[in-house]
Amino acid sequence: MNQSAAVQALILTGFGINCEEEMAAAYRLAGAEATIVHLNQVLHGQVSIHDYDILNFPGGFSFGDDLGSGVVLAKKLRYRQTPGGFTLLDDLREFISRGKFVLGICNGFQVLVKLGLLPNLGGNFEPEVTLTHNVSGRYEDRWVRLKVNANNRSPFLQGLDSFEVPVRHGEGRLLIPDEATRQRILDQNLNCLTYCDATGCEVTQYPHNPNGADLNCAGLTDTTGQVFGLMPHPEAFLSLYNHPDWARRKRVNKELSEEGDGLKLFRNIVKHVASLPHRSASSASLESVETPLR
Ligand SMILES: NC(=O)CC[C@H](N)C(=O)O
Fold it and tell me: Which of 159, 240, 263, 268 has the highest count of CB atoms within 10 angstroms of its CB?
C-alpha cells in the first residue's frame, strides 16, 4: 500500500497499449503520482488496483485491434482469473463501488465500452453500445474541437467549455443499438463531449465529427460520473508546444496559453480526488485489512 498523501494514478500498459508515458506525464504535471504497470502485474496479483485512486486505460493498439479495437483486452479483463480466482472486472466493480475513478482514452475508451463500464445504464457491466470503424473508412489523425455538456456532472470536466485535442483512431464511431438506449444516454447527460467548430457550436458533419459517431459523441461517462472515456487524446495536449498552431499563433490570431487544455482534465480529477474528505480514512481502513483485498 502506498502511504503517500499524493493522489495515486495507476496506468496500465502492455499488449500494444502505447500512450502510457503521455498519460503519466499528464498526471505528474497535475500533481499526482503516476505508476505504470504491465497489465500482467495486475492479473498475476502483484499489483492491486485498490492501492490507487484513479485507474487508467491509455490509447494504443491492444492486441493489434484484432477482432475490433479493445475487444480482446476487454475479454481478458472480463474472463481472465487472477490467482485469487477473481477477474479484473470483479475488481473494477469493487473499485467503482468504493467511489474511485476510471479513465479510458481512445483504445482505453474502446476497452471500457466493450467491457460494459460505459455507459453502464443498467448497472450490470454488460456492453450496451459499441465503437466501430470511422464512416470515412480511414484512420483520422488530426485536431478537433470538443464541446463539454454542461449538464454532465463528472469531476473530470468541471469548469471546461470547449477545447481542442488531437484524434488518432480508426474505430471511433459510437453506435447506439436502439432508441431507448439513446434516450437514456441523453436523459442522463452521459454524452459528455461532442464535436464542435472553432466557435464552440456543435457540428455533427465530417470533418468536425471525424468518425460519424451517434449523438456526435466524443466521450461518455457512466451514471456515477466516476468512469469517463473519450476518443480524442487530452494527454497529447499538455503544453502550448503540442499544438500545431503554436509557432504561427500570432499570425493566425489564435490565443493559446502556455499550458495545454488537455491538462485541465487531469488537474480536475487530481484536485477532486485530493479534496475527498474520506480519502485518507478509506486508505487507512484498506491498510488494516490482513489479507490484502484483491
Ligand atoms: N490512438 C488509439 O488509441 C487508437 C485506437 C484504435 N487502435 C483505433 O485505431 O481506433
Answer: 263
Residue 66 makes CB contacts below 8 A (sequence gap 6+) with: 72
- Residue with the smallest CA separation from ligand 1 atom 7 is 61
Residue 196 forms part of a structural domain? no
**Residues forming the active site:** 106, 233, 235
**pLDDT tens per residue across span 90-107:** 999 999 999 999 999 999
Ligand 1: atom nearest CA of 108 is 3
Quote the ipTM score: 0.97
| Ligand 1: nearest atom to the Cα of 58 | 3
Question: Residue 62 is which amino acid?
Answer: S
What digits encode the pLDDT tens for the residues 224-243?
999 999 999 999 999 999 99
What distance in angstroms lies between residue 59's CA and the mean position of ligand 1's atoms? 6
- Please report whether residue 143 resides in a domain: no
**Number of domains present in the structure of the chain:** 1
Spatial contact of 131 and 69, defined as CB atoms under 8 Å apart: yes
Please report, for the domain that includes residue 108, its CATH number.
3.40.50.880
Domain range for 263 is: 8-133+219-287
Q: Scanning the structure block, which residue is given the C-alpha cell 454488460?
A: 126
Q: Give the whole-angstrom CA distance, residue 208 versus residue 76.
A: 34
Residues of the chain with pLDDT under 50: 1-3, 281-294
Which atom of ligand 1 approaches the CA of 106 most closely? 3
